[in-house]
Amino acid sequence: MDLEKSNRSPVISELKFAGHLLVRNKLVLAGTVIAVAVLVVAMFGTLIVSPTILVNIDLPNRLQPPSAIHLLGTDDYGRDLLKMIILSTRLDVIAMLEIVGAGVAIGVSIGAFSGFLGGKLDEALMRITDIFFAIPALILALAVAAALGPGLNNLILAIITVQWPGYTRILRGQVLAERQRLYVDAMRALGIGKIRIVLRHIIPNTIYPVIVQCTLDLGGVILTFASLSFLGFGGSPLTPELGRLITAGQLYIFQAPWLTAFPGLAILIISLAFNLMGDGIRDVLDPRLRR
Amino acid sequence: MDPLALYLTDKTTQAAIPELVAHYHLNDPWPIRYAVYLSNLVKGDWGYSKSETEPVLQALSQRFPATIELTIAAILWTLVIGIPAGIISALKNNKAPDHISRLVALTGVSTPVFWLGLILQLVFFYDLAQLGLPHLPSSGMFDTTLAIEYPVATITGLPVLDTLLTGNWVMFEDSLAHLILPSFALAFVSLGVIMRITRSSMLEVLRQDYIILARSKGLPERIVIYRHALKNAMIPTVTVAGLAIAGLLGGAPLTETVFGWPGMGRLAVDAIGRNDAPLIMGFTLITALLLVLANLVVDVLYGYLDPRIKY
Amino acid sequence: MSEAPLLQINHVKLDFHTYAGEVKALDGVTFNIKRGEALGLVGESGCGKSVTALSITGLLPENASVTSGEILFAGKNLLTIRNDEMRKIRAGQIAMVFQDPTTFLNPVLTIGEQLEEVFLLNPARLASAALENGQSKNKTKSSLSKSEQRKIAKLLSIDVLKQVRLGDQDRVLTQYPHELSGGMRQRCMIAMALARNPDLFIADEITTALDVTIQAQILELLRDLKREFHGSTLLITHDLGIVAELCDRVGVMYAGNIVELADVRELFANPLHPYTKGLMRAIPMLGRELDRLETIQGTVPDLINPPSGCRFHPRCPFVLEKCKSVKPELLDVGKGHTVACHLYGEEKA
Questions:
Q1: What is the Cα–Cα distance from B24 to B37, expressed in whole angstroms?
Q2: Which of residues 14-43 of B touch A (CB under 8 A)?
């Protein structure tokens, strides 16, 4: 009887434990569900709401408070705010994923090779990443965005620039430890090239904490993106983006507060959902919490 | 980026350009230009703001106290609310106060600072005024018309301090009222972070063996928590505080913009619209310096808390 | 001889609630400690010795619950008294020393601070010590100022550090735990216990985490202290050698039960329980001819699903049918020797 239990695949018991943790914390579960919903909306946003609504100007109906027809009210061009938010969510979420994805790719590559190869290259790269840490993230992104010029892609690039050093630091720390392990020496002795060792062995073994960290970062990245958008970076004023909606809504803040309140609430909810999901993932993957 | 841009302003004449180029070695290879730039920084020459037509350093230092006042107030909010909330959260682990403060903390790190500022203005300025209730002002550091009657001295450049030092109670109240909303909005994010780290490090410390020993001595729980546990729990918190300050400095431009606060951040944001590169670079530099300074303070504190650390 | 024991533990059962299930850590532990005697508690890791000690001092973790039994001390049931009463008992009557001096001392407080706070808990005692030393200006007991209290506490701390044979006491008081060696740290922990002048001194595997040479030093200290200390001692260890040296009586624990209890000489001369016999045969002893050290077959049982009946039965070379279903109770077989085994008592032929 005991023998059967111990023979059962460890993966199943891992998943059971993960499920147990997730369900036990209702908040994390709620967050994960919402995050998934947001991702779905982002993926299929254009099917739900056609981008043509952007030009569907309906002046007689401008600045209407929330009602049965327009659940969240209308903006200064008479466009339905709910639809605008749905459309904007798509842009924000895609930008968020792009930023974190590219940040991880760059950060992991630099961190892995820097840590593995060591020497002067490692020193130099670490000094450079130190510079990035000396400047508050938002301000550095701001400066880079200003230098790159207007445009959505430039904004995304600017935030990626700020994002990758964090992952480099995490991964390099892991790689320094992993490098000491015996299999590395064994492979080198067999003549396996350094690049191959790093790509196929070192990185997969050390990437765990980076994965945890990047899911935690998702919520923060979307805040940075929206904040810089709010200030005027990235794309034209007509781009449907949640931060931009607030910039526009700001003008009417006292007459039509819903124009400011709801887009911001949307940012909050999206960020919160991904933060909760990130927390949940970290709880599941953190070996210290295992009892 | 054109190296000349750092030193050109709207008022520079064509004739003056060759001299500028010679003075700043702008035609030399970039290592020399970089060296010249650095040495000029130290000498106090940070270039000229394109539109302000004044030296960058001067423009920034004029706005510096305002940002400092805002940031320090935000730090106070963070520590005064964040740390006790974190402790209570840890002590009442998994009960109502814990769930509430965790939710607040989580909401804090998920809230866009600029939006929060706008909402606070909406509620505490506009809505309250509509209802005829006492309300908080919406922008600026103090009421300038009121200041004509009660002039604000310039000792430290921080109105709240200056009015306090000179006994100017009317303006003290006024500048304090102006400070509340923006500093709270700025603090909201780091408040959550400090709450969470205090909670988790407190929980971690309370699990330690030396806490069992302290209890076994028959010490009252109050002493166990505040004498044995707290000092240990503050170590990770102080480390995180350094990061939190980075967040505060980063949020300053947004908050200052929303609240019309005459600080460096707002200057930088305005500068972006005018493509004023030297100002932006100067601002970036100053915040970097401030952050390094803050981290230095954090390191010193860290060494004070943990006797195992020797410098 | 018929004096009431200082500590009486009756049929204490205790469970731990864990993710994997209920761990039935204590299964009806019964023993007592008389005034002035040193009782040893031996057994393998995980048999419940430390848990028993933690139950006595009320320091169990949150997921532990006592399901039945009582612990009587000075006329009170320690399992049911209020928290602040238990705290007072810890402050003045029961003192415990733990296994690892590195993790059990607070790294950010000096030895002096951690020692003096014990004395500062008892202002009355400080006052009478002050009177004795002629330090106090007042004749009345309870009116020492804070600074006077601290001064007296410091003097008393120096005294107790001398008691544990630590030199340069003034310096030690200003040092932090990480600046001392392992042996010194353990002496400091012992000092913190002695400082309270306890009626019951509990030592939970206090030499286990130390090097062998340091172990010997601490043992020597304990031998000296045995002469000077007039309270009772509960010595928890897995080392039979320590038991032989320092204890008057010994209890053997297995999987949450006391399986045998006897005077120390009697136990070594005449071990009755199969587990005790196994333990004895597993260590070398002077005056005995052995070719090999024997091990006890099998492993420590899973306490979430413990064996039925006698918890030792799966490993017992003398197992009877009865052992698999009926749990044996502690029976007195004479000379103060009790054993929980079906081989003895009514069933024995």
A1: 8
A2: none
A134 CB within 8 Å of a chain B CB: yes
Determine the CATH number of domain C7-91+239-344: 3.40.50.300
Token pair of A230 as six digits: 């709010």
Q: Does C62 touch chain A (CB under 8 A)?
A: no
**CA B186 to CA A68: how far, in whole Å?**
36
Q: Is the dihedral of CA A27, A33, A34, A38 positive or negative?
A: positive
* Cβ separation B218–C106 shorter than 8 A: no
Q: Under a CB-based contact definition with an 8 Å cutoff, are residues B306 and C177 in contact?
A: no
| DSSP state at residue B224 | I
Tokens read off for B146: 């009121």
Q: Are C129 and C148 in contact (CB under 8 A)?
A: no
- Per the CB < 8 A criterion, the answer to whether B147 and B123 are in contact is no
Per-residue H/E/C for chain A: CHHHHHHCCHHHHHHHHHHHHHHHCHHHHHHHHHHHHHHHHHHHHHHHCCHHHHHCCCHHHCCCCCCCCCCCCECCCCCEHHHHHHHHHHHHHHHHHHHHHHHHHHHHHHHHHHHHHCHHHHHHHHHHHHHHHHCCHHHHHHHHHHHHCCCHHHHHHHHHHHHHHHHHHHHHHHHHHHCCCHHHHHHHHCCCCHHHHHHHHHHHHHCHHHHHHHHHHHHHHHHHHHHHHHHCCCCCCCCCCHHHHHHHHHCCCCCCCHHHHHHHHHHHHHHHHHHHHHHHHHHHHCHHHCC
Which residues are registered as beta bridge partners of C33? C7
* Chain A residues with CB-CB distance to C20 below 8 A: 291
Domains of chain A, CATH where assigned: 22-56+71-289 (1.10.3720.10)
Answer for the pair B36, B25: CB distance below 8 angstroms, yes or no. Answer: yes
User: Residue-wise pLDDT tens for chain A (291 aa)?
Assistant: 344 444 445 566 666 666 666 556 777 788 888 888 888 888 887 777 677 766 677 777 777 787 777 778 888 888 888 888 888 888 899 999 999 999 999 999 888 888 888 888 888 888 888 888 888 888 889 888 888 888 888 899 999 999 999 899 888 888 888 888 888 888 888 888 878 877 888 888 888 888 888 888 898 999 999 999 998 887 777 788 898 889 888 888 888 888 889 999 999 999 999 988 888 787 777 654 443
Neighbours of A, requiring at least 3 CB pairs below 8 Å, are B, C
| Contact status of B284 with chain A (Cβ, < 8 Å) | yes
| C331-332/C249-254 β-pairing | unpaired
What is the reported pTM? 0.80
Q: Do C323 and C310 form a contact (C-beta atoms < 8 A)?
A: yes
Burial class (CB in 10 A: 0-12, 13-18, 19+), C286: exposed
Closest listed residue to residue B213, CA positions, set C185, C3, A256: C185
Report residue A194 as tokens.
């350094």
Task: Provide CB contacts within 8 A for B307, sequence distance 6+.
Answer: C107, C108, C176, C178
Delimit the domains of chain C by residue range: 7-91+239-344, 101-195
Is residue C105 less than 8 Å (CB to CB) from chain B? yes
Q: Alpha helix locations (H) across chain B?
A: 17-23, 30-43, 56-91, 96-110, 113-120, 128-130, 144-149, 159-165, 169-206, 209-216, 221-223, 230-258, 264-273, 277-305
Which of C46, C176, C61, C171 minimizes the C-alpha distance to C109?
A: C176
For residue B159, give the nearest of B101, B95, B230, B73 by alpha carbon. Answer: B73
Collapsed DSSP state (helix, strand, coil) of residue B55: strand
Distance CA B274, CA C255 (A): 78
- Report chain C residues whose CB lies below 8 A from the CB of A291: 18-20
ipTM: 0.87
Enter the DSSP assignment of B299.
Answer: H
